[in-house]
Design brief:
The structure is a homodimer. In chain A, α9 crosses α10 and α10 runs antiparallel to α12. By secondary structure, chain A is an all-alpha fold. The radius of gyration of chain A is 22 Å and the shape is elongated. Chain A has two domains: 72 residues, Homeodomain-like (Arc Repressor Mutant, subunit A); 131 residues, Tetracycline Repressor, domain 2, CATH 1.10.357. Chains A and B meet through α2, α7, α8, α10 and α11 of A and α2, α7, α8, α10 and α11 of B. Chain A binds a DNA duplex through α2 and α4.
DNA sequence: AGAAGATCGTACTGGAGAGTACGATGACCA
DNA sequence: TGGTCATCGTACTCTCCAGTACGATCTTCT
């Protein structure tokens, strides 16, 4: 009976610590995205937190630490890609998928995260790779599995499904995403997104639909 | 005879100043790309220059100033796109263009510049836009003019040439460039580039070649 | 030659921000 | 109830770096 907390596995203390940690990370995310790594100050985070610097450092032993934690937690915004399933019309299925994809990519959070990762990839060398594996790679796997399935069903020509998946994704990014990365302000109305998606899918199917 | 320099328009003094300025900018570019804006120190630049800080500040009154100058000068690495001209085979013409494009985009300088611009777009708001106008926009204009021409010659379907141009460019960027932005190391051998380019052009022409 | 200007080196100021020290207060646990 | 642990606030140190001051030297123009 050295530690009754361990038994319950839910000391009030530990719970509060978890909560606080989460609060810190949330505030840190906000600061990092708004000002980048260099522009963010620990003091400001502490102030925003309402707590003291001492507390902050008791959770994270350095700014880098906190940044890593913020990013790690953050990758969850790439929620599992909606399941793609053939629904009677391949074109419509793909268009709908592309719309979802575009909508997600054009989210301010995703945009900001891209910016941040790219900016700090030098300072945190593994960052790019982790990020790549979490986001685009997962997507590519999911989409290419779907495409393979469609090939097997005879609705698409047999081809390199991984390559096709990348191509479709990149076609989606065309224009809108690059603009938003460069601080321009593209039209992101649902109608415009739909238009982009249809355009992309048409080009794609022209190339890969079964004869 | 108030100033004989003005007449010759080539005082040794002025010439040297130009030279020095260029030297500073060159060194600054190197530092900014290697360490980003935040990671670059004026002192280090001065040291690398061999001169003193005083001199440095006599040319550029602040770090921001120097950064702007460095970038301004730098945009020239986007050398005028090779003229695209139909040469008897549309597919081959486009493949060759795409190879050139990819080779340019995968240059370390271009990659670094992208990184820098994206990273500092918040600090220097006009940066993104200037950059966009200098690089991708010029390209798009050139390529879409060519595509329009090809439509008029009947080798391509009539369509929105600007959109087509963006699509072709973005298809090229697929995989290779994104990888290099994320710090992965894609295969950039000529053979691989050629393969990518052919693949892209085939998809493109499937969609847009005249029937 | 002599004035004007550019460069140099070095030492300084001033500000910002990461991280620490420490004593006090309160929350939780046994 | 008494001990442990988290938190708090404040004030501090340390380091880094942009930008300045200044007197000495070297170059170029007239």
């Amino acid at each position: 009976m050295t530690n009754s907390c361990a038994e319950k596995n839910l000391c009030k203390r530990d719970a509060k610590k978890e909560e606080k940690r989460a609060a810190i990370v949330a505030i840190a995310q906000q600061h990092f995205t708004e000002h980048g790594f260099g522009g963010t100050t620990m003091s400001a985070i502490a102030a925003d937190l309402g707590g003291s610097k001492t507390t902050l450092w008791s959770y994270f032993s350095s700014k880098e630490d906190l940044f890593a934690a913020a990013l790690d937690d953050w990758i969850d915004i790439f929620e599992p890609v909606r399941n793609i399933r053939y629904e009677g019309d391949l074109r419509e299925t793909l268009v709908s998928y592309c719309c979802d994809f575009l909508n997600q990519m054009l989210t301010p959070q995703v945009e900001t995260m891209f910016r941040l990762v790219i900016a700090e990839a030098k300072r945190f060398p593994e960052l790019g790779q982790i990020f790549y594996e979490q986001a685009p790679l997962r997507r590519h796997k999911a989409l290419s599995a779907f495409l393979q399935q469609e090939m097997d069903s005879g609705r698409l020509r047999q081809y390199d499904s991984v390559r096709m998946s990348s191509q479709l994704h990149h076609l989606c990014l065309y224009r809108l995403f690059m603009h938003s990365i460069w601080g321009l302000e593209p039209d992101t109305s649902p109608a415009q997104i739909r238009l982009e998606a249809e355009n992309v899918v048409d080009l794609f199917l022209n190339g890969y639909a079964a004869a």
